[in-house]
Amino acid sequence: MPLNTLVFKSTRTRPEFRLLRDPPVRVVERKARRRPRPLAEILMDQGAIGPETLLRAIALQRHQDLPIGEILIAHGDISERQLLNGLCAQYGAKAINLATDPADATLAALLPAKTAIALGVLPWRRAGQALIVVTNRPDQEAAIRAAFNPDQPLIVAIASRSQMHDALTRAYGPELARLAEARVPQQVSCRNWNARRWMPVLASWALAVAAFAWTNPVVLAVLAYGIALLVFFCNATLKLAALAAALRAPVPEPSRGIAAALAPPRQPIPLRRQPVVSILVPLLREQDIAGQLVKRLSRLDYPRELLDVILVLEAGDRTTQTALAQATLPSWMRAVTVPPGHPQTKPRALNYALNFARGSIIGIYDAEDRPDPDQIRKVVRRFSECPPEVACLQGRLDYYNATHNWISRCFTIEYASWFRMMLPGVQRLGLFVPLGGTTLFLRRAALEAVGAWDAHNVTEDAELGLRLVRNGYRTEIVATTTYEEANSAILPWIRQRSRWLKGYAMTWVTHMRDPVALWRSLRPRAFLGFQLQILGTVLGFLAAPLLWTFSLVPFGLPHPLDPVLTPFGFGMIGAGFVLALVLSLTMSFLACRAPHLRRHRLALPLMLLYFPLASAAAVLALVEMLLRPFHWAKTAHGKFSHRRGMVATPGTGTTP
């Protein structure tokens, strides 16, 4: 309810605040229905809040489209019980204890699941011809009544927010879980992938290749090496183009140079209304870091009443549930449990939790993430500045355990090249941006318009980035960083990378079912870029072992292409390899120009040992694509939350 004027009257007992109503003209227009008293006035009379608290809440409400009760709850000024009592007094409604008086399960069918969750309302009981509905948002009474049959008499009762969440989950959870498995349209989803029907085809091709190799080994060698070299040089060309584009308009780095340090800070553009931002944090068997997660996310500098953090748990994950039971969640953080179902993947969990999110901006964090404290403010400001077709903002990722061993150092260099060079370059080339699994923020309207996440794709982030482009949206890279934990063991690294490559392969197969439609939706440049970015990545790692054989030629060892290549031809191929290596090292060197990354430049030669691991991951990815296409290989985290070897991250106060 709008509060136009605040009048202070001095009395002998205590200060009294009287909230004046709207002008008389508006009151006359609504004579048929008396407007309830302001909630703040009721809470003052009940002694739940004092004058200073009231003034602060009203000041915050001027810049936010939130009920004043939500603001007071978020700041810990009132309890759920006090808010419930105030709402009951404001609307003259009865309070319902859903824990002792649960709703009639047969009445849930009267309201669609998404409508019930969005309005926070649940059909409770029948009273003669009337239907009693329970809500924690009585201010939406008009929308609640409009959701039912106009001839249905309604009696609105009120329950606490936590009890409403539990009741809605019990009533609509299974239905929402089924919907979460198939939100993406079938023609662009990989859920109907059937590896069994491809087995005879692959077996026939294997026999044909073996027979051809027996009769024409030289021709087969020329074809195999020709494809491998073509993929290699196409990937190098894409990398060169992305590097040139990134250097043409480099992403500004914080504290870059003396001039930048001496320049006065730019004043931010004021925002009239700041949006609610929902952060989804999928958790699975996170016993070591569930408690630390609350502390890390508490560093986010954004109004608490506008921050909606949802910890997404699986129903059978007792490990995380036990860990969270030992942690005290603030009022702006809550847990949502995903009912059992198939497949048990991160995108399915995100689809389910999206129904309970309150924000118009949806962000994703991983359990071990340490975002920059001002990250949400940067994202909100950038969304307010860019056009609506910019549907996603992708932040940069870095690692806080970069110095643990050589794998973590190489992982850090690779991510620096990817997020600080490759992705900005790809964005400026007009190609699609493969999203990362964390630190991405999406406009909710655009996310729901494209069907959210494909629950069966194990690289749901990159696939979502492609569907955004196909539907006319764009992604931008925003200059903010999240620090997470690098996978620093060889076998877990291979399993993680195989999942990513399996998702890449599945994405390519799915969207190439109709190449003409893909061509039309992406346009020629982005279509060709898609082939290089997705297919080229998978084929590049698979073909790498063939290219390694060229290193044997200088030692006088025989090579399968000896019958068709002269020493000059071998020399040209070798020169191309050297130039591509210089290109990769140059990109990595420039990507590590940030002060906290410069120390890792000494580890650049180790990248020659690092990337061959991805070839093993690519082979494993193809095997799993045939045997376990929807299996999610969980990456273990939380091993470095309290250990040495962590780098100091700006703004987090982490001690090396």
From TrEMBL:
Superkingdom of this protein's organism: Bacteria
GO molecular function per UniProt: glycosyltransferase activity
Ranges annotated as spanning the membrane: 222-247, 527-548, 568-590, 602-623
Domain Glycosyltransferase 2-like: 362-550
Keyword entries, A-Z: Glycosyltransferase, Membrane, Transferase, Transmembrane, Transmembrane helix
Pfam family, one: Glyco_trans_2_3
Organism: Rhodophyticola porphyridii
Identification of the protein by name: Glycosyltransferase
Domain Type II secretion system protein GspE N-terminal span(s) in chain numbering: 91-176
Family, as annotated: Belongs to the glycosyltransferase 2 family.
